[in-house]
Amino acid sequence: MNAGLLMPGLEEVLFYLRGILQLIRHNPAGWRNLDISERGVSRSFWAIAWSLPGMLVSWLSWRSTYIEFGGVGDTGALFIFRMAVLDLTIWLLQIIFVAALLVYMKKAQHFKSMVVATNWLSVPFSIYSGTLSALQMLAPGGVVLWWILMNIGLAGAIYASYSIYRMMNGITTGPAISLAVTTLLTSLILTPILQTYLGVSL
User: Fold this and answer.
1) How far is residue 147 CA from its own chain's centroid?
2) For a 10 Å CB count at each end of the chain, is N or C smaller?
3) Separation of CA 74 from chain center
4) With pLDDT > 70 as the criterion, what percentage of the chain qualifies?
């Protein structure tokens, strides 16, 4: 089997994440840790598999809340499948919309860098979200603390996205903010729409 098709191991993923951390710290040397070749772009989508444990916990937490608020319909495997469709659709749409904005800015040469960096960036934030979702299920009384920590995570994701875009050659502060905001708005606007369409909204 082509080695490029195999799932990256933990050591390789940590190597990529160290590069991501350097970019967040505004150190352009972080790009050296990221494979932005065609092969690297394809392999970066393994980030979905590495994000699945955190995503699954988040789906189970949402299912618990859905049931608590009297949600109707299937709450078994089909519910989890719909949540997976929702998250993966948002994941891909964020890439598409940011790519379109890069084209509009005449910065399409950064497409591969954007895909690789944002895909691997999703892994730590998926773990963070999954951890908070687990805490919510184990200690449902701490709603205020959970809300604060989730918003801290959201702010961190926005800043991390901005920092990565800012480290792309020729991307100044204004465009970097626009790209980060596009990533955020894609999720905030489309998530409730897709939740309603897929029958998993509260």
Assistant:
1) 18
2) N
3) 26
4) 98
Which residue is listed with tokens 């699954």? 56
Distance, in Å, from the CA atom of 7 to the CA atom of 12, rounded to the nearest integer, reads 10
Sign of CA dihedral 63, 76, 83, 191: negative
> What's at 87, amino acid-wise?
D
**From CA 9, how far away is CA 40, in angstroms rounded?**
14
Most confident of 13-17, 66-70, 149-153: 13-17
CA 75 to chain centre: 24
Q: Give the model's pLDDT for residue 1.
A: 47
Residue 73 to residues 76, 77, 112, Cα–Cα distance (Å): 9, 12, 41
CA distance 168 to 149: 29
Query: Which token pair is 165?
Result: 């875009």
Report d(CA 178, CA 167) in Å as an integer: 14
Residue 34 reports pLDDT greater than 90: yes
Both structure tokens of 85: 């469709």
Contacts of residue 156, Cβ cutoff 8 Å, sequence gap at least 6: 125, 128
Please give the Cα distance from 143 to 18 (Å, whole number). Answer: 32
Instruction: Tell me the CB-side half-sphere exposure of residue 78, using CA atoms within 13 A.
Output: 7
DSSP, collapsed to helix, strand or coil, labels residue 43 as: helix
Task: Give the helix ranges, DSSP H, for 25-142.
Answer: 38-44, 47-68, 77-104, 111-138
**Predicted confidence (pLDDT) per residue in 35-49, tens digit:** 999 999 999 999 999
